[in-house]
Amino acid sequence: MNKKTVRDIEIGGKRVLVRVDFNVPLDKSGNITDDTRIRAALPTIRYLAENGARVILASHLGRPKGTFDDRYSLKPVARRLEELLGREVPVAEDVVGDIPRRAVERLGEGQVMMLENVRFYAEEERNDEKFARSLAELADVFVNDAFGAAHRAHASTEGVARIIPGVAGFLMEREIEMLGRALASPDRPFLAVIGGAKVSDKIGVVGNLLEKVDTLIIGGGMANTFLKAKGFDMGKSLLEGNRVDMARDLMDRAGASGVKFMLPVDLVVSRAADPEAEWKVVPVEGVPEDWMALDIGPESARLFGIAIGEARTVVWNGPMGVFEMAPFARGTFSIARSLAESAAVTIVGGGDSAAAVEKAGVADRITHISTGGGASLEFLEGRQLPGVVALQDK
Ligand code: ADP
Ligand code: MG
Questions:
Q1: Neighbours of 86 (CB within 10 A)
Q2: Which of 39, 351, 359, 365 does the annotation list as catalytic?
């Protein structure tokens, strides 16, 4: 990676503003249902504290729409962080101004505090320069460890790094290295599995990966549009009629550049996207008129599994079916297991795909599961992430 990291700068005694992605899921009573994102930032926080920095954490949580709203307070997140770190993490009741300034003044070397939700200010998402300046005034250096927010040019992800020197945290570094190496210099054969609901969400990803992979597998709802382009009748399946030509074009491009392009050969079809509804396995040419494809079939999973087994780098984004419902989760879980069993470098990007790998119980056997949903997609599309661009070059 050509960006500086926390290892490359002097941090002892310094006030360090750390942008983390603590946008954790909360239940209706405000309890944290998954603290993966908090845990993912621990190495950076610990490193900074152990090396004598005064650590000031900043994050967003939910969409409070630019006003103070207790439902989106970061206090419950700070409590969880205290448990994980085994040290106190006071929360300033504001993001900028006198309250955080005084809290930072009280902060000793090796101590950790948090600012309130940066999205309590509309200026955050507008990347307002004055607001970024107020944030920057709290610190001497900036550390960005919020890969999940790096695709957004907001004040706390991008603006602040224009004012004080910015470097990457360990999580950010790992994300960029893992995803970056897969795209730039993968061990071959390089295979990508792309799924999810819609082609329109993934055109950029498919287009970019097509230039780089040896094999491209398409599954999930978006495969329907490709199968339609090949002339199959897809019944009531989710299908983007206005993307059929584009799907055909992508397949032509794959053919022209010698990329092996694989689509499902069989499908799980049902009368409704309902776990109680009747379902059956049919070949792709046999989708009944009133039925919809909700998963890849077992033969497809088997063939995809063989291809995955032969690859040395695998990038997976997008479930193979409606994995939220048990009858339509088998294809997705089978792919998850194939990745787990493979000797390849395996990388999973996308929020639902990461959840599927967890649900399949194989998360610990995947080389890298990206913590950034939208950010990992934009990375796979080949785009520059503004939160990364703003950091100092090595
Ligand atoms: P990710 O978050 O990993 O990028 P997506 O958001 O693109 O993945 O896709 C996940 C969604 O796609 C899931 O909610 C899943 O139910 C849906 N999906 C997958 N296959 C189908 C299908 N055949 N029909 C309808 N929806 C599907
Ligand atoms: Mg998703």
A1: 6
A2: 351
Predicted confidence at residue 213, as pLDDT, reads: 97
Q: Which ligand is nearest to the CA of 351?
A: 1
Give per-residue pLDDT as tens, 269-308.
999 999 999 999 999 999 999 999 999 999 999 999 999 9
CATH fold of 179-381: Rossmann fold (3.40.50)
Would strands 141-144 and 166-168 be described as parallel, antiparallel, or unpaired? Answer: parallel
pTM of the model: 0.92
For the stretch 199-209, pLDDT in tens is: 888 989 999 99
Domain 6-171, CATH homologous superfamily name and number: Phosphoglycerate kinase, N-terminal domain (3.40.50.1260)
Ligand 1 binding pocket mutation candidate from 269, 274, 352 (most atoms within 8 A of CB): 352
Q: CB 271: neighbour CB atoms within 10 A?
A: 15
Dist. CA 127–CA 114, nearest whole Å: 20
Ranges of CATH 3.40.50.1260 domains, the chain: 6-171, 179-381
